[in-house]
Protein 1
Amino acid sequence: SFAYPDAQGVFDQINKQFYVSPEVLTELTKAFLDEIALGLSEYNHAMAMIPTFVTGVPDGTETGTFLALDLGGTNLRVCEVVLNGDKTFNLVQNQYKVSEALKHGEATALFDYLADSVDAFLTTHATTDYTSLQSDPSAHTSDAVHLGLTFSFPVEQTALNSGKILTWTKGFSAKHAIGNDVVKLLQDAFNRKHMHVKCVALVNDTVGALLSRAYTSGGCFLGAIFGTGTNGAYLEDVDKIRKFAGSAAAANGGAMVVNTEWGAFNNSKSHLPVTPFDNAVDRLSINPGYQIFEKFISGMYLGEISRTVLLSLVDATPKSLLFKGKATPSLNQHYGLDTRFLSEIEAAWIDTGATKGSVELPPLGKPSFESELSDAAKAKLTAVRKVILGPHGLGYKSEDEVSLRDAAIVRWVCALVARRAALLSGVAVATTLIQTGRAVLPGQEGSKALRERNEKIGVGVDGSLVENYPNFNTILRESLRLLVGEDVEQRVNIGLAKDGSGVGAALCALQALKQG
Ligand code: ADP
């Protein structure tokens, strides 16, 4: 009964829409390099290429005890980080809830709350005894404990320890904050409470990932986030930051970490192979036309793109191609499908105990699909169906509602969307390798020096997507291999930047003290 004029044609077309050819990946890398150059030469470019005033990365020998405060994720986080100087660290942390009232009230109330949270943390969690530093007006300021602030909102940074808040995002809207220096807002709150805590560094979470991976692995040139959003920060030659021309930073020369804000790649021109599903997701998003690259790649959107494709199949005419034409409340709900679902589906598909390994499936549109399934394929699809029916699933109640073909279609859609994301993530990584002279595009002459280099190239990554989506890294590397060649790809060492925001902020605070 599945037979209909051209069911297979519908699947083939979606396949084609999501396919990114090697040629397109190469063109995207060139366009990415152009946008990097533009962002480095002028201010207010969509891909902002923000100089961070961090002039080097750690090598693992750093020591010291620092506090870190992280605002911008789901919770407020306070940590104490002890850097042992041997690539290891000890970290204790506590999380504090930021109420809706604080998010939307006066900025001073919000920052007072941040200071109170640090105070509470020092009393109840910190391993070092800070009692002499708390609320003691007679203590010397030189005794102050140093704190790094990870603030994951758009900021125009003007020094390691100052930056103007540009806008709120992620549901914050505290009044009288925009346009003010976030470090000063926090320091004023510490001072109001006579706390001897000094905020010495302002860090973006991406920079934190770079620094913490550099510390624990002994060197790293790129930090990249593939979580709710996507972004990257890498070490650039100050000479190439052309918008610095004439400034003190330019005169100092050397290197500086640049926060790319690469989620905004492609905002202005359309290089990316957009599908109608992407257009729908963008149009209904809170920021249509912005963060276009991010919308192809990150955790916030992959579930939503998949949901949009799945619904198109449920609604297909002249006859539904999925779930007998029946949607569920979660399928109908805007952002009703978490990217975690994609990870769970892929994990179920890959690993079903005895049936581990790859299997062949008949074409999805073939009328006799189910009767042609091998036992191994049936076992895998049954595992996929369990996820569809499971707690993070699509909200169907019984196996009768989800055929094995439905399961196969869902897995195919999720894998298609995630694979494209991982391939495009490879473009971002390849671009920074080329930008920093570590690689060249296929067909371009590599310098002899480049080919003869054989140092390891460190990349630190963080975020639920790269951590949890099975084979995200493998697919990213596939794209990298294609773009920069196997010899360079083999030397790229990609590792998780654990506790990036805490350790990164501590390392940045240390940098701030060193840089004076
Ligand atoms: P953030 O980027 O905000 O610091 P995370 O790195 O935890 O936070 O990313 C959260 C995002 O990751 C959300 O968009 C969520 O949908 C997605 N996510 C959560 N769990 C998983 C998972 N197991 N696999 C893939 N994505 C996930």
Protein 2
Amino acid sequence: MSDLAKEMSVVNAGSSVSVENMAHWNDFYNEVPAPLNYAEVISGVRKFIQDAKQECARVAVVTSGGTMVPLEQLTVRFVDNFSSGTRGAASTEYFLDEGYKVVFLNRQKSIQPYARHIPSVLDVLELDRETNVKVKSCHASKIQSVLESYEKYKSSCFAITYESLGDYLWLLKGISTELNSIGASGMLYLAAAVSDFYIPKNDMPEHKIQSDRRPEITFSLVPKMLRPLVKEWAPEAYIISFKLETDPNILLQKAEKALKLYQHNMVIANMLTTRKKTVTAVERTGEVVKIDNHDEDKEIESLIVNLVKEKHSKYIQELSAKSPFP
Ligand code: PMT
């Protein structure tokens, strides 16, 4: 049985979605248009990655937030995957602290690095007789330290926003292809919550679905893009995917299955309800590291990034030892 056939039977188990709906990954791109600014964004990414290469810096592509799947062509309604964007935004800050350059591919209006530490403007500002508006004194020192970090790192982070699943997958393909030009120094850290279902354009109503009868919606399966990502777009990069489940009994076996199927480097497995306290990193080599955060003042992302950086360093060393060039 081919890998793809195996995957289809796994995905299809117990589901009423027919297996014929699992298209080849290329069909998805033939069917779903690229975002309008695609060429411009990818040329910006190319320059950012080439500049990082000149500086011999590592680059982490961090994906973050949910992916929206429209139900109508003129979209009023859509389905979404859960993700606030905290994992991606917090990890971005820790990668920058560790000297990485970061391409931050994030869902519009999701949680943002640095900005996430500052409460809403209406809470931090107040009217003032002399200057008209000023920062409330109780927030001043926190805002100052956040701004200092932001100023220090802003040129090391290239942020790109997306909204729909189609835009996300187009941008992921373009960015990872560019990332491959720096070989093992590149890392993909796929924290975005990516939909497994979509409606191809030909099956999607043009106008708002009317509520005079029960709607019938048929989703197609989105091909797992980890496959071409590892095999074709960025075969040399260090690739980490996240696995989100709500049933603890299947979490680790799903993580191991993903590593066997796609042959990438690491899966970080997390449960929806405990994702801020505990995750398990499973490597293709079979090594399993459980990360528990017991420290109220620490974020689990700082521990995840520490581990990931260490594993990435090892990967770079191993690959350079194999390379015929000094
Ligand atoms: O943002 P927060 O609120 O902080 O939450 C963080 C998180 C829980 C969203 C994050 O830690 C997380 O688990 N993200 C991955 C969610 C997800 O898409 O899991 P999954 O089990 O559905 O998919 C597994 C992997 O397959 C993902 O890395 C995804 O990139 C990949 N995938 C998914 C669908 C698809 N068609 N192709 C893919 O390659």
